[in-house]
């Protein structure tokens, strides 16, 4: 079965799509590059653009039109609700989940000077950074991974350091630029971070063709994370973090909801069997709401 895969045009998006095709039988897929709203609007901070699906809506439209049969996404960009007629056909084995600091001076987060300027467009990262270092100055940064690294290392640039996803740098061969891998007690990742998802038309034959790509342990972990996110509004721009992992037959989920300035943080943790991943995320969302999460998220 030959499938047409849609992808964004960035180097990272192309790497992810090429990786998916490399895991399928040779000749079973072809690629169509599709530009999304998130790719076109580069002069506005992501949270201010608004709406869900900034990096996915155009790909989903192409799926509905059957121009493509599959679309490759970073799972953290994919809205928690699947449109009618579409499905997540496979979730690949997860890459490193966390966030990293790329520092112009080579200094770690704790060693950066007072009032250092950090580049990030993520409310989740910003809130957790300010929780750890309230003195930091945060400055929006947009562009693909290459562009962001160039901005971070520019001697005359405005950034002392920037934050990026560990997975993206590893996939593109930029691990040498990492100054520090930030621990989860400082920076918990976004729900689904580090995982690649293949969205497809809700067709049994297509889903069967994608089955060899699917990693059950990763899927169970991200199901818990995304269930937590969905119960609290489902937007990827929220100051919300979640990470789940499977150890033996126990799934553990830790999640945070923060105020934008990082002065308030609600953290919840729970365990369940992998088959109850969705219920675990929903339960921890209820626990967070009981502690005031709804008010923090506005």
Automatic annotation (TrEMBL):
GO terms for molecular function: hydroxymethylbilane synthase activity. It catalyses: 4 porphobilinogen + H2O = hydroxymethylbilane + 4 NH4(+). The modification S-(dipyrrolylmethanemethyl)cysteine is found at residue 236. Residues 220-288 form the Porphobilinogen deaminase C-terminal domain. InterPro entries: HemC, Porphobilin_deaminase_N, Porphobilinogen_deaminase_C, Porphobilinogen_deaminase_C_sf. It is an enzyme of class 2 (transferase). One of its GO terms (biological process) is protoporphyrinogen IX biosynthetic process. Its EC number is 2.5.1.61. Binds 1 dipyrromethane group covalently. It comes from the Bacteria. Residues 3-205 form the Porphobilinogen deaminase N-terminal domain. Monomer. This is Porphobilinogen deaminase. It comes from Armatimonas rosea. The lineage of its organism: Bacteria, Bacillati, Armatimonadota, Armatimonadia, Armatimonadales.
